[in-house]
Write a structure and sequence with these properties.
Chains: A alpha+beta, B alpha/beta, C alpha+beta
Number of strands of chain C: 8
Radius of gyration of chain C: 21 Å
Number of helices of chain C: 15
CATH superfamily of chain C: Cytochrome-c3 Hydrogenase, chain B
CATH architecture of the domain at 49-142 in chain A: 2-Layer Sandwich
Structural class of chain C: alpha+beta
Number of helices of chain A: 5
Oligomer: heterotrimer
Shape of chain A: elongated
Largest sheet of chain C: 3 strands, antiparallel
Helix content of chain A: 10-25%
Strand order of the largest sheet of chain A: 2-3-5
Radius of gyration of chain A: 26 Å
Number of domains of chain C: 1
Number of strands of chain A: 5
Strand order of the largest sheet of chain C: 1-2-3
Chain lengths: 151, 193, 370
């Protein structure tokens, strides 16, 4: 008899509906209002690549050892360098990184011996052209500057 | 004692090229236990070679013995689950493909590999009558390597399009290789790369 | 010969095309129908074939590690675990104990994440639109932990050959413990929504029955096999990465229908929480990386290593020729082998049941096609 009553009065369906109504409470809203609210990205997030500069001298930390290019599974880093006659060391000339094919796996970041190349927390990497996705040294040092919208 | 002048040094004979190193082979050791004895009794001496490497046992047989061996292992030895069928391409060998079957037994909790060598153009016997799970697995081996299977109910390409020419996982198929004609006909572009 | 007219009711061939909201990816199923009853199916796959096995032959072992995440993209950490275990087997090393425990924690979190996505999309296909939001809300918590640990949410690249790359971050244990406390009431919430619901039961009971005999014949593993009554889980049968130390149950049921698979995956989520709680209690100190050389060159040989991925038995068969690049990497995908059983499971069922069965097999096309 109780089973029949439960069946007629749709008890199991109301049980599920009650769960849904419970979650309508404004305290349980989970949506982030992007782009007004930007997400808190973790420190280790593998985002856009950056070439770091020495904070005191402003020179690049990269020593053009080419380890990142060798480590990359997609072979999308091209590093050119020239030899400085005075200090007899290699100096970086150009550094090309193709973000359109990048997997953001982090192997280049792990290979870099000087902390020059790192994957920063930028995730807004959209461009209007395919060529805009191939970053040169200037773009890598400054980073992408996504448009900020006023909301 | 004659005070002989030491003979002028003769020009050294040209050094013979060092003998080519034999290609390294897997350091497998012979495997013997109850199962191997059972199989030797059933199939005769010398029909199967039993090896083990890193704790994983495998059996090397001739291609015509494979279906009989798998059937015996399923009915008589409890290896009722065919895990995988795959192939490896060794183009320098005469029998270039290594066809590998991996079986598992629930009752023994043990795995065994069966390996045979297939030449180009030679067709292997299908194990679908014994294990229905071999249906798609053999279709994939056919698609990727071009090894035909006799007795397969529905042998056609599975991952590549049906009209594709070429077998991608062979070593002579370059990693940028494609069926140009198919790409032009069906995708309208010159190259898929 | 009688001429067939337009209104003739013989077999109809209907294409459930690659672009379909319920086929969980680009899966094409050609249905032969008699009215609405399915007489036979033919699955056409290969729309997501990316040639991962061919790529492996042109990359070194460490370079191939990120590609492996993209196979079963829903549960990327398991794929990485399987690959790292296979290469470690070839190198005859083992990860240190601390790395093994952290690996278990991340893999079980990954199992919960995969089952949550399964539950959300399966319910969505059947018509229950609510659970998907709640499942994704919990999945978000797990993905936040992954992001804080290794830097990416979905294609994690969390493990390296020989151990781990990253140390656990400050607060890792606290966050994982908080998740373990927060999660079981949520599973109860999903059960409240679905388990007793008459619509759910009607849609799922006695649909897509696959008994134990057929499971073994078709090589089906994972929750589908356990729903048929076979008590087999690779974590208990052939433990890897320290699973023998943890105390957990393997849920099995008897009928082998879709409802049983649903109950098993819900119970697996609870058991996974249990494993995580045990693992996070005692993470040993020590190194996180074994002594592997910088350039990985395993000796000539081959190995097959398989793990219990959320979808079934995921195996890696790696053949090495002594160089830095693998000679052949074969991925044995659980979804590929499970999908073969689709034909057997939907004979005589309705089209709506085909959708339910594809959902319950829990296939991910990235794995099926590689």
């Amino acid at each position: 008899m109780p089973q029949l009553l439960k069946k007629i009065f749709l008890v199991d369906l109301f049980q599920g509906l009650w769960v849904t109504f419970r979650n309508q409470n404004p305290k349980r809203i989970y949506t982030e209002q992007y782009p007004a609210q930007r997400p808190a990205v973790a420190e280790r997030f593998r985002g856009a690549p950056r070439l770091n500069l020495n904070p005191e001298t402003g020179e690049t930390l990269c020593m053009a050892c080419n380890m990142c290019a060798l480590a990359c599974p997609e072979n999308l880093i091209v590093v050119t360098s020239q030899r400085n006659e005075q200090t007899k060391k290699k100096e970086l000339v150009t550094f090309t990184f193709d973000t359109s094919r990048c997997m953001f796996c982090g192997l280049c970041e792990e290979a870099c011996p000087t902390d020059a190349l790192e994957l920063s927390q930028d995730f807004e990497l959209a461009t209007y052209t395919r060529e805009g996705q191939i970053w040169d040294r200037k773009m890598l040092e400054e980073g992408p500057k996504p448009t900020r919208y006023k909301c | 004692m004659a005070d002989e002048k030491p003979a002028p040094p003769k020009p050294a004979p040209p050094k013979a090229a060092p003998p080519p190193k034999p290609p390294a082979v897997m350091a497998a050791t012979p495997w013997e236990d109850n199962l191997t004895r059972e199989l030797t009794d059933r199939f005769g001496d010398g029909a199967c070679e039993f090896r083990t490497y890193l704790g994983q046992n495998f059996i090397l047989v001739k291609p015509d013995m494979v279906v009989g061996l798998i059937e015996y292992l399923k009915m008589g030895a409890g290896f009722d689950y065919l895990v995988d069928i795959t192939a490896v391409d060794w183009p320098e060998r005469a029998e270039r493909f290594d066809l590998v079957y991996i079986l598992y037994s629930f009752s023994r909790n043990a795995r065994v590999r069966i390996k045979t060598q297939i030449a180009e153009g030679q067709r292997a016997a299908s194990v679908v009558p014994v294990h229905p799970t071999a249906n798609w697995l053999e279709r994939e081996v056919f698609d990727m390597f071009g090894i035909g299977f006799t007795g397969h109910p529905d042998l056609r390409r599975i991952l590549m399009p049906d009209e594709w020419q070429g077998h991608p996982l062979r070593k002579d198929y370059s990693i940028l290789g494609q069926d140009q004609r198919w790409v032009e006909e069906n995708l309208g572009v010159e190259s898929g790369q | 010969m009688p001429e067939t007219t337009f209104l003739d009711s013989t077999e109809l061939v209907l294409n459930m095309g690659p672009q379909h909201p319920s086929t969980h990816g680009v899966l094409r199923v050609i249905l032969k129908l008699d009215g609405e009853k399915v007489m036979g199916t033919d699955c056409v796959i290969g729309y997501l074939h990316r040639g991962v096995e061919k790529i492996a032959e042109a990359r070194t072992y460490t370079q191939f590690n990120p590609y492996v995440d993209r196979l079963d993209y829903v549960a990327a950490v398991s794929n990485g675990l399987g690959y790292c275990l296979a290469v470690e087997k070839l190198l005859n090393t083992e990860a240190p104990p601390r790395a093994q425990v952290v690996r278990v924690i991340l893999t079980e979190l990954n199992r919960i994440a995969s089952h949550l996505l399964w539950l959300g999309t399966h319910a969505l296909d059947i018509g229950a639109v609510t659970p998907v939001f709640y499942c994704f809300r919990e999945r978000e918590e797990i993905l936040k932990i992954f992001e804080k640990y290794c830097g990416a949410r979905l294609t994690t690249h969390a493990f390296r050959i020989g151990g781990l790359q990253y140390e656990t971050y400050d607060g890792f244990e606290d966050e994982v413990k908080a998740f373990c406390d927060m999660f079981p009431p949520k599973v109860d919430e999903y059960e409240e929504l679905l388990t007793q619901n008459r619509i759910w039961v009607k849609r799922l009971k006695d649909v897509g029955i696959l008994n134990a005999e057929d499971c073994k014949r078709y090589g089906v593993t994972g929750p589908v096999l356990r729903a048929a009554g076979v008590d087999w889980d690779l974590r208990k049968a052939q433990p890897y990465s320290g699973y023998e130390k943890y105390d957990f149950l393997i849920p099995t049921r008897q009928n082998g229908d879709t409802y049983d698979r649903y109950m098993i995956r819900m119970e697996e989520m609870r058991q996974a929480t249990r494993i995580i709680r045990q693992a996070v209690e005692g993470i040993p100190d020590g190194p996180i990386m074994a002594k592997v050389p910088k350039v990985i060159k395993p000796p000539v040989g081959e190995a097959y290593v398989s793990i219990e991925a959320p979808k079934g038995e995921l195996g890696y068969y790696i053949v090495s020729d002594g160089s830095t690049q693998p000679y052949r990497v074969r991925v044995r995908p659980p979804s590929f082998v499970n999908l073969q059983a689709l034909d057997r499971m939907v004979r005589g069922a309705l089209i709506a049941d085909v959708v339910a069965v594809i959902g319950t097999l829990d296939i991910v096309l990235g794995e099926v096609d590689r």
